[in-house]
Amino acid sequence: MTRRSVTEHREAVDALLATLGENRVSEPLSVSAPALLARPGEFRGRILADDLLAPTDLPTFDNSQMDGYAVSWFDLVTASPADPVQLLIAPQIAAGDEASVLLPSTAAPIMTGAPVPPGADAIVPIEQAVPPYFQPAPGTGGAQASGGVDAHPSVAAEAAENSTASVAAEAADSVSAATVRADESAAMGAHDAEPPLPHPAPTVWFIEPVTPGTFIRRAGSDVAAGDVLLPAGCPLGPAQLGVIAGTGLTEVNVLRRIRVLLISTGHEIRDAGSTLGPGQIFDSNSVSMSLALLEAGCEVTAVPCRSDDADVLLGILSEHASAADLVITIGGVSAGAREVVRDALGTLGVEFGKVAMQPGGPQGFGVATLPVAPATAAEAPPAAAPATASATTPATAGVNTAPDAAPTPPASITLPVLCLPGNPVSALVSFEMFVRPALRRLSHSEPSERVREVAMMADPADSPPGTYQVRRGFVAEDGTVALIGGPSSHLLHSYASSNALVHIPADVERLDVGDPVMVWRIDD
Predict the structure, then answer these.
(1) What is the pLDDT of residue 376?
(2) What is the distance between the alpha carbons of residues 229 and 52, in angstroms, rounded to a whole number?
(3) Measuring CA to CA, which residue among 297, 300, 341 is closest to residue 320?
(4) Which residues of 433-464 are buried (b: 16+ CB within 10 A; e: fewer)?
(5) Which pLDDT belongs to residue 448?
(6) CB proximity list for 315: less than 8 A, separation 6 or greater
(7) Checking DSSP bridges between strand 350-354 and strand 452-457, what pairing results, if any?
């Protein structure tokens, strides 16, 4: 690969990674609060694999949008402040109750979310009733049980004159029933207690008519059974998972995350917590790049290669490549001696060269045919995408099936490979510039690109001619950006102290204080 521009290399990486979006494999995801809370990582950034049809109406039944009274609009057609309508109060309906039929000339106290009873076709909010509060059942004391006569005398007088014979008859029936119940209670042994006095049937007044359908949430008004509940490709956030659970579904098919085999290389790297020998360093790349990949929506297997021997790296690939969709290596890509990635993959389909960028010049990419150990080849499920093609030889590769059969070549797998430089800042900047946007698009993560702003330079800066320089900086509230650390690719602490990447184009060799510059915010 010759010295590419930043734009050219980004386009090449986009084209390479685009194959990962073809024929994506799906997998089931259980939808329940216990599953989510037990394994929250499984639910973050998931994408629906297929159109999901609603198995039922939402809401599943007509229900009340307000606390109030369920009524028949016909009963209130003549209601006005001058001519109020008085209705008997039917049994209360709470959310989760089964509603009985609403009789003519009655009003049922109903709570938000409760089913609208048959015979009712409107809800009057409690604030619009007289009295504007729910009344206790007969015999419980408290507020006036006769329908608010004392609370609203101006209405009561006219309402008494306009009471219909049917209301009076039903009120009388209620009084008789209450008397019978009181007599029965006394006969059952309340020997030293006074029999309860009968109470008049409670009523409620209405002073205006109501339109059919008022404050009723109709069944299917959110979504009807058989409609597309959520389309394929939809990211599953709180609202989407909630509506899935609301239909009673317990499992959906989601796109399997892109599986990345991450290999940080170097004879010198060791795990944090171990004892370092001469010339050894702790492996920061495995940690920083693993998190960067997770945030880009990937599933990551990190296996460091603590050797500069190409055969060791090929052994790691042979063991783990069959469970990956993409291989990303860090380090070993320059033109020096003992460049393990270049030595191992240079003959397998990966192209190496330079990009006109600082830091992050050395890069490698391509579609590589990688060896697969017979055991892992036999265990690996068949892949559905070109990026995870099936092994080119059967699982019995390497085993003679006849006494005079020629040796069978080892199994192999074809995967896209990205090779990033090894210095920590170079690796992270390369990931930001070329890899992260493409992976976030594949995972439907928004925004896929970093937020871009124009800031004013707080410091002067020089840049090599013909090289796209990416510096670390901190954007202040006044819109100025101060550079943090120098351009060197090992200054990871400077990167960690920054909130922006400062972009100096290849045709700009110097920026002075106050000059505008594009920055990518990395503090989201």
Answers:
(1) 54
(2) 5
(3) 300
(4) bbbbbbbbbbbbbeebebeeeebbbbeebebe
(5) 92
(6) none
(7) unpaired
Q: Could you give the 3-state DSSP secondary structure of residue 322?
A: helix
Strands (E), 15-81: 26-30, 52-53, 63-64, 68-71
- pLDDT, position 305: 97
Amino acid at 515: D
Residues near 263 by beta carbon (within 8 Å), at least 6 away in sequence: 302, 303, 304, 305, 313, 316, 317, 327, 328, 329, 330
For 109, list phi and psi in degrees, rounded to 5.
-55, 130
The pair of three-digit structure tokens given for residue 56, joined into one six-digit string:
């039922």
Alpha-carbon gap, residue 479 to 443, rounded angstroms: 32
380 contacts: CB under 8 Å, gap ≥ 6: 322, 323, 372, 391, 413
d(CA 305, CA 357): 26
Cα–chain center distance at 445: 9
Those residues of the chain that have pLDDT short of 50 are 1, 139-153, 155-193, 378, 381-403
The HSE-up count of residue 349 (CA atoms within 13 Å, CB side) is 15
The Cα–Cα gap between 208 and 82 comes to: 10
Q: What is the torsion angle, in degrees rounded to the nearest 10, for the CA atoms of residue 287, residue 293, residue 299 and residue 301?
A: -40
Q: Which two tokens stand for residue 64?
A: 């009340």
Q: Which single residue is written with the structure tokens 């008519």?
A: 209
State whether residue 243 is helix, strand or coil.
Answer: helix
Q: How far apart are the first and last CA of the chain?
A: 34
The whole-number pLDDT of residue 135 equals 87
Query: What is the bridge-based pairing of β-strands 203-206 and 129-130?
Result: antiparallel
Q: Say what the pLDDT of residue 169 is.
A: 40
Phi, psi of 281, deg, nearest 5 = -135, 160
Q: In sequence order, what DSSP letters do the residues of 6-20 get, joined into one string?
A: HHHHHHHHHHHHHGG
Cα gap 399→410, rounded to integer Å? 9
Of 307, 218, 293, the residue nearest 261 (C-alpha): 293
Residue 391, phi-psi category: left (phi > 0), alpha (psi -120 to 50), beta (remainder):
beta
Q: How far is CA 31 from CA 24, 49, 132, 242, in A?
A: 21, 15, 42, 9
Q: Which ranges of 470-512 does DSSP label H, i.e. alpha helix? A: 492-496
* Buried/exposed code over 271-286 (b: 16+ C-beta within 10 A; e: otherwise): eeeeeeeeeeeebebb
**Residue 290 near residue 427, CB atoms below 8 Å:** no
The SS3 of residue 220 is: coil
CB atoms within 10 A of CB 376: 18
pLDDT at 395: 34
